[in-house]
Protein 1
Amino acid sequence: MSKPSLELARAALLTPAGLSESDLESVLGQMLGRSIDHADMYFQSSRHESWMLENGIVKEGSHNIEQGVGVRAISGEKTGFAYSDEIQLPALAQAAKTARVIAAGGHEGKLKAWSTRDGQQLYLPDDPLVSLGADAKVALLKAADAEARRIDPRVTQVIATLSGVHEVILVAATDGTLAGDVRPLVRMNVSVIVEQDGRREQGSAGGGGRVDFSYFLDQDRGLGFAREAVRQALVNLDAEDAPAGNMQVVLGPGWPGVLLHEAVGHGLEGDFNRKGSSVFSDRIGQQVASKLCTVVDDGAMVNRRGSLNIDDEGIPSGRNVLIENGILKGYMQDKLNARLMKMPVTGNGRRESYSHLPMPRMTNTYMQPGEHNPAEIIAAVENGLYAVNFGGGQVDITSGKFVFSTSEAYLIEKGKVTRPVKGATLIGNGPEVMQRITMVGNDLSLDAGVGVCGKEGQSVPVGVGQPTLLVDGLTVGGTRS
Amino acid sequence: MAKLMAQNTTARAAYDLDQLKQLVGDILQQAKDLGATSAEAGVNSEAGFSVTVRMGEVETIEYNRDKGLGVTVYFGQRKGSASTTDFRPHAVSETVRAAVDIARYTAEDEYAGLADPALMARDIPDLQLYQPWDITPDAAVEMAKECEAAAFAVDKRLHNSEGAYIATHSGARVYGNSNGFVGGYPSSRHSLGCTMIGRENDEMQRDHWYSLSRNPAGLEAAVSVGQKAAQRTVERLSARKIQTGKLPVIFSAEAARGLLGHFIRAINGSALYRKSSFLLDSLGQAIFPDFIEIQEQPHLLQGLGSSPFDSEGVSTRERRIIEAGVLQGYVLDSYAARHLGMQTTGNAGGVHNLSINHQAADLDALLRQMDKGILVTEVMGQGVNIVTGDYSRGAGGFWVEGGEIQYPIEEFTLAGNLRQMYRGLQAVAGDVDRRGNLLTGSWLIDEMTIAGD
């Protein structure tokens, strides 16, 4: 909770509406008077800009402005919630009145004095949208298009997109929280179609983070996405049918960490565990993965897409060990679930916007590196699959079944990576698959900054990462049985 | 509904069609004043609430009130877009200006522009899409409690719940453009659902059931929704794995909706002009067997996908998309249509109530027709490649033998290619799932690769 961020948030959200901190105190105070355990207000303003290139021209651009305030009142396990897109005292008071209808029992709470602390600054509180002129944004997309077409004449389509968000939030709560954050987020993506002898395949690459647009010019990153998209598409032109059945699978480093997000991440979110609906419920202290696995959720990584100086409840984000040497250590929590489970908050309370309720969510989730060289891991497989790129995944946290779908994969034959195979979905049971991780590489990397996580209709940006891993048995959903 | 409004965050009605039309008019005028050669704008406003109940207690009461406006301006063949949720005059002006600023940097696009004025909806039929629900949050809480209680009463293995919910929303949308078209209409949506968790031998399973309708009278009874959620959960307990192999597959009506959805994505204009579809240049080709008909009916009264005009103001029309298995038309907006040298099909924003004919009476008849194979009731993941038609997804369902369901199965994948799956469609059942825009019963596909143990 750096003071400068709070000052900026006050200036952006409260000052234009003529709202003072005593106004916030009085609204919160009225809510507490109704036997509410906790109440908070979340002010948000965001500006989003995007540009899209297709057929060699930047043909679309859009600009979106959104702002509002969400008011929440909690009584025991009950939550009342209302919001307004007008940041004005009367609308705020009305939303507060609506939210507190939830109160029935609960005990008398007390409004605590504001507590503001100097906090972390994982990213600069600047507006990324103005970091590059419109001409330069257009030029960047055109350069990516030219690069993709230059590399290979089989490229028939290039779609390149550039988007940025400048978001300012302020949280005020009855527990004394008064915190603000200014969150830049940029993203670039290039997807291509290649064509050869009537066969078409696609490839896609991108990245970004809580930085400004110059990130895509540095080290030619934007052009790098174009090259990577073309490379993937060309690999897929040669892909054969994928195998079907249970086999050894080597997962590459970085984005394949979507495995962890699905196989364990969601299942360790506090809400599911409080309700006993997760396959990991009541398993703290137990062995839930092989001893080689240490899994961390870290919202405090510099400039990362999933990072937050403070979460959406004003709690500083941090590094939380979820699984250590295979033993389940803890869950990811928001204030509501931490209180009901009598556990510490972890800075994982996130929400899509002021019009959504916060809940426990991941930030950047990854596995610590092990000791094996990636080449040794591949050499250890007689016949299997080497999967290096994925689309996305999904999990049923109750049964533990999860899937993730490859977009670039190869056969491993006699310890060597041989031919590329078509995209296939991999399916397994989270705790079982984690127990079958028998080799962990020394090449930890995080994804390039492309992840979007959806839960109960709310999307938030996240990061994933892992070193190369060997899973000794996973079901591969190809067509060749 | 009126009662709810009085206690909502602001004391206005959910919408005022004339006010929204006035706003669209203002936006178009401002765009013109800033030099735009043409412009279009859409606004929407919606309000409602939702309640969730879990383990017999209220969990959340959420009041929703959402609105938004979007504008696209054209300077010749260059365009720019902007949107906001803030309807105050200065915010609206800023938004129009933002769109104009963007149009200074976008390139000339020969296909850009408004839809042909001759195609605009001339009269706007009342499709009875606005059927407000006069229910208080307290009454909704009682109904959700009743739903969850009915679920728990079904089986003692149901030890836990993710809760039951009721949601009700209504509002209006207005679209207008500088060719003189302005149209709008109100609509509503109500839903009721329940998710249960069961346990047997250390294994947990969950499943759900829901009802969705424009008209509260069209919602399934709360007790029935709870009981179905419960039955579906209990039926999944003690699921087994299966062997890898090739087998016939029935997609339940819910799962089959996805297959119809992939077909629509593959014949969508944007996928076609980008040459990113496995159904490129397939007009006049047999995509399905000759007994299959697929039609679009945008004007079904109270239909979840009904709309008198599309998101460019183009009048929507009933049509056959598949006739005797053969593709009759694509799904186009005016932009994609110009790219392809065709005319818009009134599908800017998507299709409107798509349905497929059926050959088998119900799911039981389809199970008998299959005799041995698998019934898929749930698919997971994103393994559908529209460029190639390659399909590989996680699934759960039931083992079928002797034309009857034997036991639940899980942790397997289904793989094939959509082109072959559509050609291999053996029959569709009459157990139509009406909870959406794509209306279909269960599908029997001749053969897919199943990967399991």
Protein 2
Amino acid sequence: MTDAMPVGDRKPLPPPVDETGVVGWARKNLFSSWGNGITTIVLIAAVVWILNWFLEWALFTANFTATTGSECRGGGACWALIREKFRYIFFGSFPYQQHWRPLFAVITMLAMLVLSADRRMWNWRLLVIWGVGSFITFLLMFGQIHIPLSLILFVALAGGVIGLTLRSALAPSSERMAYYALIGIGVVGLALRIAGVLPKWSIAIAPLSYVETSLWGGLPVTLILATYGLAFAFPYGILLALGRRSNLPLIKGLCVGFIELIRGVPLISLLIMASVMLPLFLPSGTTIDKFLRAQVAVILFAGAYIAEVIRGGLQSLPKGQFEAADAMGLNYPQKTLLIILPQALRVVIPPLINTFIGFFKDTSLVLIIGIFDFLNTANQALVDPNWAGFPGEVYLFAAFVYFIFCFSMSRYSKYLEFELNKGTRR
Amino acid sequence: MAVESLGSAPRVKVAPWNDPVIRGWVFQIVVVGLVGFLAWYLVSNTIDNLQRQKIASGFHYLEREAGFEIGDTMIEYSPASTYARAIWVGILNTLRVAVLGILLSTLLGTIIGVGRLSPNWLLSRICSWYVEAFRNVPLLLWLFLFYKLISEAFPGPRQAISLLWSSVFLSNRGVYFPVPMADPIHKWMGVALLVGILGAWMLARWGKKRQEATGQPFPTVSASLGVIIGLPAIVWLAGGAPHHMSWPELKGFNFAGGTVIQPEFTALLVGLVLYTSAFVAEIVRSGILALHKGQSEAAAALGLSRSQAMRLVLLPQALRVIVPPMTSQYLNITKNSSLAIAIGYPDLVASVNVTINQTGQAIENILIIMAAYLSVSLSISAFMNWYNKRIALRER
Amino acid sequence: MAATARDLSKAESVIQLKGVNKWYGQFHVLTDINLDVKEGEKIVICGPSGSGKSTLIRCINRLEEHQRGDIVVHGVTLSNDVKNIEAIRREVGMVFQSFNLFPHLTILDNLTLAPIWVKKMPKKEAEEIAMSLLTRVRIPEQALKYPGQLSGGQQQRVAIARALCMRPKIMLFDEPTSALDPEMVKEVLDVMIELAREGMTMLCVTHEMGFARAVADRVIFMDRGEIVEQNEPEEFFANPRNDRTKLFLGQILHNH
């Protein structure tokens, strides 16, 4: 080492030319050795060959304008088929004139999901967003919503109980009185309703024509099944996870048994069960909507998987957190709601999003019990004898739509993981 | 101090409603009671409904004639066989696709996962495109796509694409390829293979012992391979080296001779393998990334060769990270093979579904499905747990 | 022994341990512990690791259950009774070795959590108390930050303030300075010394012998689950009687 020159006097030398710029980059990343260089050349050749073939098929010789399948034949891709069928693929058998309704329902649900992705909304706002969003979505899809009196009373009761448990320590006495009033109204009202004193009455909101679920199809069905599957499975997954970590043997046993049972069998078997066994479970004479059956199966399925994800979060908390909460004199619900869950859930948000991506893809299985989700409507578009013989085009198109949804969600999950880590570290 | 006092709590009077033990039991009894009530309600409704609809119950139907055709069977089966046999055919088909799927997707996934970490920029990009493309699209869609491509884009048997000097044919009826003519020696070759595997295992143990005792390394891998391949080969030669093959030939509208892989099976296997290997690749990649760089440097500094470092230092650690998520991928393959029903491959769920439709006995059949998948799932988990424990122990 | 114990002989006992025993499986962690703590007394507990000193103070607020003997805190005998445990935890504050602040809450929320939820104190009042305590531990300006943004010494001072927020009568310290970098130990000890001078009853597991000399009324040496020796600090350090104590003090004073 010739370190005689004082450090301050030395000018920094630029690195050798072949270490920087395009040439340097390529040398380092593509041609660092003989084997590497050969790999690169072979790969470039393969990519060029495939791209050439694909572009030829999908673009240069493709037919965008044909009006029948036979016009399309012989050339490249028949994108005219998508042009012809895309409204069916997106909205299924929903009355054609009314397609704006599922369209806006999809937009509402997307807005709901996008707003929920914003961390500033992770508080009471989330409840409002989901309440309003769900109301709009189902009003658009059904056209008419009947809210029975008993449901209103039940919501009043639940709202009172939740408000009281969450806010009892913080709320001024007037607010607390309001919760007591809500509970009172709920309990008395429900009792009277069950006793038959109050009539079977409901609020009807009916601005649009009624469309039954058997006509629903396409993207809104996929979105509803996945989104509400998650929304309902989430609280019950939390309960299952807490139960599995409980030291009460019976509770633990029940939760472990349920989770392992559901996770041990394929979703298809649950769907078949929901479609053939659910009607047997209910008192004879009651019929249950097929769409609802599928939704129930998805919720049961999702809950078990979400429970395992949340359990991971619970396990990642250091023991000191539980001890500190105990030493402060917090009781179990307080400890769980104020200390444990907020931290555990924060840890598991990225894996939860990945789980959600899984459900979003798995909802495609409902086509086996005859629900017209997005994949099923794409499938049905192929059945038309006029347009037979172009499966590649339709499936590629459907794959593209699924890809956009799943890929953007997985990117969001990566981003969030990064952001959350930044917050907890210094 | 005497141990008999273990666990005896201080005797102080506690009001029952303030005792956490009593509170816990009351809570548990209430919850179990509610669950029990729900179960009773559902079961009583079900019994009621079954009687009303005059649906038989019990597993007697399994003895009856199934009466439906199954396209792809590994064991003898005809419509005259029983339902039990039909379901057994389905179970075997599920296992066949699951086992092959697990092997192939582990292989492909490992290659792609390692490829993603390649210093070659282009290779790592291509591998990551692969992963993103396959895991962000539903498996069912891939299955439909592959199935439709095989059954619609491939030519009929008469125009079949021939590969490898007209020994393998691709057509919309499946892939046809030659197999050796049946010969009694094959059975003995199988026995020799098993003996070879056992011998290789014993050889490896002996080699390890000798190395521990004398320090002499033993070329375990090549010796084991030699035994495993060599023994059956010797038996084959001893049996007169029968080399007659059954070649697929076009007879009329279809091929005769050779053997065929049905398009349904091909589509299912290809779809499962391509889809799952995207997940496997991610697991392998994160397993390798989880290794601390210091580990390979420390191994190198000790003078271990690259392959020794890999075998003795890096792989054991990477496996510890890889095995648990890999287990759940293997379980996923098994469960996802049930998507077969959508493209008409006769797996367990498909056979049972036909049985449900014919007999109306949903409950018994769904119990069969659940029992079958649960036992497969539990045995895979048990095996992987055992394996995980073994490699976890080795690290201490 | 209780010669210089100021007016402690007349003070009331606030914690009494009589024949306390505890096992982890077959391992006997606490053997026949007898201890009587007077109001306002400051006790330092030291001993080699694994001697049961942390377990002892964790039994006092029932983070650990003892299996035999009696523990009486403020006249309440510890048992499975949930109400008693809640009552005792309200009276007894605890500071942990690893701080155990709640990372998802701001410093202020960490402090006000227990007063609001356990004592049902109005939020405003709780925040006022919290701010005055933060001023006392000299970090009021950090109130709206999150624990992750503070240094270890600051976090431990927050943890002390958090325990004080419940206006406890007794404070337990479980090696409060062991997880800190040397330059931060002093800021935490200063706060503890100040607290001691104000007359708080304190039980402190620590190896900070300077602290013991400065404030302790009694130093207890534990080994293998037993109280081997206890004495007032000057006597304890000058004339340890037991061989195990001598050995331990020899090691610990050499290292410092």
Protein 3
Amino acid sequence: MASESTHAVLQPNVGTAEQHGHHSAQMPTGIMRWVLTTNHKEIGSLYLLFSLLMLFVGGTMALVIRAELFQPGLQYVQPEFFNQMTTMHGLIMVFGAIMPAFVGLANWMIPMQIGAPDMALPRLNNFSFWLLPVAFGILLSTLLMEGGGPNFGWTFYAPLSTTYAPPSTSFFIMSIHLAGISSILGAINIIATILNLRTPGMRLMDMSLFVWTWLITAFLLIAVMPVLAGVVTMMLLDINFGTSFFDAAGGGDPVLFQHLFWFFGHPEVYIMILPAFGIVSLIVPTFARKRLFGYASMVYATASIALLSFVVWAHHMFTVGLPLTAELFFMYSTMLIAVPTGVKVFNWIATLFRGSITFEVPMLFALGFIVMFTIGGLSGVMLAIVPADFQYHDTYFVVAHFHYVLVPGALFAILAGAYYWMPKWTGHYADETLGRWHFWLSVIGVNLTFFPMHFSGLAGMPRRIPDYALQFADFNMISSIGGFLFGFSQLIFVWVLVKAIRGGEKAPAKAWEGAEGLEWTVPCPAPTHTFETPPKFVPEVDSPSRH
Amino acid sequence: MSSQYYVPPTSKWPIIAVVVLGLTAVGAGSLMSYGSGLPFLLAGLVGIAFVMYGWFRDVVNESMGGLYDAQMDRSFRQGMGWFIFSEVMFFAAFFGALFYIRVFALPWLDGQGAKGITALLWPDFTASWPLMNTPDPSIGGPNAVINPWTLPLINTLLLVSSSVTLTVAHHALKEGNRPKLTQWLIVTLALGFVFLVIQGIEYVEAWTQLGLTLQAGIYGSTFFLLTGFHGVHVTIGAIVLLVMLLRIRRGHFSANQHFAFEAGAWYWHFVDVVWIGLFLFVYVF
């Protein structure tokens, strides 16, 4: 099957130097080029386009939810279908939009930032990407199956996801397995790339913060995705083979499901935010025209957050009936996370202090991130307080909290990164005017959507319901208007992207005046193959940690 | 650090692997959810075997062709090391479940400890481990469990010895003593094979004579989950070592370049360590 390319490789005198030259000549054309590609930039683009598609699929589901909640009463969808929408919206956004977007950015930027020619294991990279469309094809197809798709919430608590689950649940489990294999292999590839392919002279403490945050994120992925695989396997056995893992009647415990799920789930939260920290830590210094304040403390804070993420999981379960000792332990350990996170926010602000700041679109999104992610972080500290959480638990306050860290948090950082690196990808700057419209409409939309949810939640509105009491009507109407505004504003981004691909203001190699890093030493757009020989790196001049 | 990087050329195997894995997932999903789809599942499994053969064959050929440099070797080593770490975490989830059930869930159902109020569900339930009587009697526990000092002890000795014999084989490889390498690798494989046979005998005994099945409450669930996934891993490890044996007979590997062999050995030692955990916490204590 692959014998053609293998034979070409096995010709005796084809040295490694010629490999690169003949690389593009051997490349298949048309669609097969994308199906077979092992190039980190092409795979990065595939990841990013896939995540953009999933953002709109998951976003459409969010709009179905917001349309139904525009007014009290049942208007458009049945409760059963509403439950499938909340479940699928969460699963698709977490596993299909945010995570693949960060992996796409990692693919594109990590090799260029460390001076590597490609990822360490390029074929594995292709495999990791193409598993995703299959996984999400299977997941989406469950919506059309007898009994409907997953309807138990994206956290799929047993026994809702076992005893009372729709028959399609085994398909759901298979899609989680495929997406999990993709994540684990992708993460292994990223770690091997960072640890093994840095250009000579680049020490760990000379790496960009984006590379550092991804190194730690990849470690988290390898540590917890197998736990997710384990817990869905136990679900599969409970459903199909009569085991009793999550059934107290046989000596098991439904709460065990929650422990295992959140042992995966909490590090997963940081998997979706640490790379965002990395992106913001590059953009803020660029547009403040100063070196990042506290480089080393940023690295240590990231590592601390990652380690703490393994010992905080039960703060998602305060109302399930934990022993008092456990509630206290998980409350204090959770609050501890505010310390390294505070270090980060402090460092970003200190970087801005006395900087020569300009407000290009990437900077706007990065600053929006700092302000609004902090709002989500602070409501997280509120939720960490056990007695307060007894009131907040499973209300819209929680929905407001995690959407603030994921939408103006993770998603804004991804968009900031996209605007920041679009010149490197396409050769053209993103349209500044459209970008500003995109930013400001997104800011207004996101706050209109999620800020009122704090109030409806504190007033007692539960999550995951298609109908609600009359006193929540005003807040929900505002949220729905904001939701549609935010959703349709994202079409501007598609417009910006298409425009930049087709043309626009040409960018030089160093597209931003204050930008630092090896990716700005190669032309815009970056040629298919970069750094075929390791670039020169002098720590005293090039390191972001230099004094 | 080399002055020139090696980037492997494109290959059709990854996309074929995606297709056959997708086929397996769809087949398994529809078989379990709706009772049909066996042909897809079987085709997928055959396809996986085909891909493993083809993809590894290409990599072996490239490696034998001298295309891989020291950097590529390090990437493979790190890849394998992190893969084994992910496997460790996979088993950690199962061990975590076992400990949680034994330390928290069952005593609470019995009325002991901080959440002993759970005993209101089944007031007559008494906790024990192995759990012979489930809280709800309609589920039914096992009649008896496997005695650790019979077959499991033999299996422990077999697997620990196999780690030793594999290390002897590895040293023989490093000394360039190929007859010794082949002999000790065959001994290792034989030990692994006997382990699997004994595990099979134990399973048949458990299922048919002791009433110890997947459906026999939480003891049966954890017993088969942990030993079953371990058995699958022993099988995979044995297949890897068998492939190494075939490659050695074809003259592959040199005294200082044999990472595939080392990767297989790492994996085998990992499976061995998991077994020691199993022997202690599933069988003995």
